[in-house]
Design a protein that fits this description.
140 residues, two-stranded antiparallel sheet, globular, alpha+beta
């Protein structure tokens, strides 16, 4: 878990992707405002522009924040904030937006039709016997 990121992204059930920061992070908020993000008083957060898909807006925001030297994170429920790097941002935002919109998140395997991907962890339950793999014996 990450402590004290400059900007924390999360999803709101009614508004989708949002970004929050501490009161002292005026520079980080200015970066997002320059990208078209607007302050939503009822959420106490910045929301992405309406004319840009949320995933694209989130990726652009993370990219610009990192370019300006700000640290970003993604809220993981009541458990804290995970570090949000630029290479993981697309994966995280795609899953979060799909989860909020009710779309199925696929992993690209044949099990996607059988069992949906869980909200946390990323491990899917598969029915049937598990394959046992025994370690090889050391050569003497």
């Amino acid at each position: 878990m990450m402590t004290n990121p400059n900007m924390v992204f999360s999803t709101d059930p009614r508004h989708g992707l949002v970004a929050r920061s501490g009161w002292e992070q005026e520079e980080a908020r200015t970066v997002l405002r320059d990208l078209g993000w607007e302050w939503a008083e009822e959420l106490h957060a910045l929301v992405p522009p309406d004319d840009v898909p949320e995933v694209d807006a989130g990726l652009q925001a993370v990219s610009e924040l990192h370019l300006h030297g700000h640290r970003t994170g993604y809220a993981v429920g009541p458990y804290g904030t995970m570090r949000l790097t630029l290479d993981r941002a697309e994966q995280v935002f795609t899953k979060a937006v799909a989860r909020e919109s009710g779309d199925a998140v696929t992993t690209g395997t044949k099990n996607d039709q059988l069992c949906p991907r869980p909200a946390y962890g990323g491990v899917t339950a598969v029915e049937g016997p598990a394959e046992v793999v025994e370690p090889e014996s050391p050569m003497i």
